[in-house]
Amino acid sequence: MRKPIIAANWKMHKTVKEANDFLQEFIPLVEGNNDVDIVLCVPFTVLDAVSKKIADTNITLGAQNVYCQDKGAFTGEVAPQMLLEFGTKYVIIGHSERRAVFGETDELIKEKVNKALQSGLIPILCVGETLEEREKGFTEAKCRKQIEAVFHGLTKDQAAQIVIAYEPIWAIGTGKTASSSDAEQTISYIRSLLSGIFDEDTALKVRIQYGGSVKPENVQDLMAQPNIDGALVGGASLDPQSFAKIVNYKE
């Protein structure tokens, strides 16, 4: 049985003070919820403060990016060991904003995933299509390209560690959400791809999230789908009350 994982992606938001204020309110709201893995993927600048604040709680630390080298002349990049130093467990890799704004390729994302796995970090790998690609019927082809680029060459054990976040790009930050049935259809397809690359047993171990304007109002419908194992939450994760309602969707 796959344990649901609800992860916040704060993106480029929150100072140390704002992060501490958020946690002061958020921690008591989700205390005792052990039904889901709760992850906060925060900016590098607040990793230290957040790690201290969530110590001895049911909340896990995540980062939003990592580089594929341990050290070197890579100005502005962050190595796996730098994240691990703060107790970081998860790292978002291949978010559509990294792909579109910063030009990250499938090849680079594969290298990042490999380095994260080798270093003991759990990748949250983002895949998804643009509105134009969706309207042309290219959703499955786009997801297949992104999945195959990363998973080919991995062992079954490595594959089972990765969390996939299906995020249709047209639904990120727009208020538009894929219907629960549409999200389920694409995520079921992604699981079938994994079954083809590895086997059914491995595919059934991989947790696949949905991301794209997830809110307290739609999280229950999404989570009721058999192949959706959680959510990667953007805007709604910036408010402690809103994100707590998403985390506590079973109540």
Please give a quick description of this structure:
This protein has 251 residues and is α/β, with parallel strands linked by helices. It has helices at 16-30, 47-53, 80-84, 96-102, 106-119, 131-135, 139-151, 156-161, 180-197, 200-205, 219-223, 240-247; strands at 5-9, 37-42, 59-63, 90-93, 122-127, 163-166, 207-211, 230-233. 43% of the residues lie in helices and 16% in strands.
Describe it.
The protein contains twelve helices and eight strands. Strand 2, helix 2 and strand 3 form a beta-alpha-beta unit. The longest helix has 18 residues.
> What percent strand?
15-25%
Structural class: alpha/beta
Helix segment count?
A: 12
Head-to-tail CA distance between termini: 20 Å
Q: What is the subunit arrangement here? A: single chain
Reported CATH architecture: Alpha-Beta Barrel
What is the CATH superfamily?
Aldolase class I
Number of domains: 1
User: What strand line-up does the widest sheet have?
Assistant: 1-2-3-4-5-6-7-8
Helix and strand succession?
EHEHEHEHHEHHHEHHEHEH
Low-pLDDT sequence parts: none
Do you know the CATH topology?
TIM Barrel
Major sheet: 8 strands, parallel, barrel
Number of beta-strand segments: 8
Tell me the helix content: 40-55%
Form type: globular
Mean pLDDT: 96
Assigned CATH class = Alpha Beta
